[in-house]
Fold this sequence. Notes:
Helix content is 37%, strand content 23%. It is an alpha/beta fold. Mean pLDDT is 82; it is low at 31-50.
Amino acid sequence: MSAPTPPRSIPLRYILIPLFLAMVVGLLALLFYVLSQSGQLAGFEPGINLEPTLIRQENRPAPDFTLVLSDGRAVKLSDYRGKAVVINFWASWCAPCRAEAPTLEETHKRYADRGVVILGISLWDTEEAAAEFRKVYGQTYPSGVDPNGKIAIEYGVSGIPETYFITPDGMIAAKFVGPLPLETMEILLGEMLSDE
């Protein structure tokens, strides 16, 4: 009587190759998703409303936060209590953000001596990319990077650019979704400053 034949072992390559292919397909699917969400595939930024929208939000307290500015200083929103604050969420790769950059800088120059603070918060960006954006568009108002999106989550940001108007007593008066026209900026600031 012959001895039973031991079961044949499966060559390691028959296990590793399908596993490797599954990982590659998974990574490609993840890359496709990330690129589609960041606007790199279709030439648009996700979550950016094509139609600019003004949303008034009376009597909602603005969440306080700490932001490290491009010069290394850490500031809190509460540091600006008593001033009207315009918080602009943006990113260096966002085309509408580039379009509205002159409006924000012009507003900073016109209203800084009237107690208005423009505060830029860059999302889904590196400090290097944000710094290049600030240089190209001559951004002189305070700005920093929100690397993990914590501030954006607290504010409920759904796309960029989004701009929040904070009254001197720390309440959100309005938010504007999409690239902000200078005329709308001036109307909203005029309303906040007239309430003082």
